[in-house]
Amino acid sequence: MTKEPEMTSEFVNRPACAVDVSSEVKKIPLFKVFMPKSVMGPLKKTLMSGYIAQGPRVLEFEEKLKDFLGVKNILTVDAGTHALELALRLAGVDEGDEVISSPLTCVATNMPVMARGAKIRWSDVLVDTGNIDPESIERLITPRTKAILYVHWAGNPANIDRINEIAKKHNIKVIEDAAHAFGAGYKGKRIGNHSDFVMYSFQAIKHMTTGDGGALVCKDEEDHKRGRALRWFGLDRTAIKEELRWYYDIKEWGYKFNMNDIDATIGLEHLKYTEKILKVCRWNGNYYNKNLSKVKGIRVLRQEDGASSAYWLYTLLAERRDEFIEYLKKKGIDNSIVHTRNDVYTCFKDFKDDLPRPGLEEFTSKYVSIPSCWWVKKEDAKYIVDSIKAFYER
Length: 394
Known about the structure:
By secondary structure, the protein is an alpha/beta fold. The chain has helices at residues 9-12, 40-47, 56-69, 80-90, 107-115, 134-138, 160-170, 221-230, 261-270, 274-292, 321-330, 358-366, 378-393; strands spanning 18-20, 25-27, 74-77, 98-101, 119-122, 145-151, 173-177, 185-186, 189-190, 197-201, 214-218, 298-300, 307-308, 314-318, 367-370.
């Protein structure tokens, strides 16, 4: 069994779960914001500095992120969704083009495709991971396909090598949605080092938060340079030395997607604790894998060769799911499917087709996620496992 990580006072002093004294039922949330008390000093300094827009803290945060992820080119932005929209534009996706994407993700993955005026072609997913099925991708490629876009479900990396192999064969770009997978690994490197574009979300409940925000890793230096300008009205703030930036020519229209120094200050402090958060998530994930793998009625998910999940969520496949969900809630264990398959929403009606997706159908009929992150202590994980066993053994 993986050794349990040491818990600093920042974790120990934050109870993993509350207990209802009247009923002695634990209350274990599925999501919870981690915000270190130590952020208050740096945040006050930034707030009182007279400069709170994109400035020195953003630059410092980007350098720290590059070190943490082991990447060369990164752009911080105000939201992960905007990072995806930026990636799609840099990938050359335009009106009438096609993007192959997984339907099993947050709608924030796929709405940026609509913002570009492109068509979504839905892939299937692998029933034993919930991730995009690489073999379903190739069947969807047409002359109008410009990109493959997919999420690493629950922080568990997809088969990146196979997906990139397909993309290279057909000369199309790959965009990874790593909103769930900050700190996850693949073939000896952190996610962020393998594809043309990789998006991160720093929304409130992620492993690493800036309150809200995101980042985009660009493999190509020219994409990175262009993205620096596009995120702020077409002007690269980091390259401009004049006080009045509007003297510079704007060659290409851009967005207001930049991160500010307030969010970056929170991120800089939060990043100090991220490794410990990841260790706890992984300990819990490994504990669940070991103790639930032989429970009849439960199926634990597989990891690809060389992959290391960040376990932002712990998703399992459950027989009698509706009854199981209600049982866990009565035991004080919060749980959810988290994201509904996107292809059922009315806003995506123009992209419906009659293609069979057996993996998606089976996975979405059984999947449910249980608490696994930093607030779930060893005794909570044991309580969750014992409760699940009790349900299926009764």
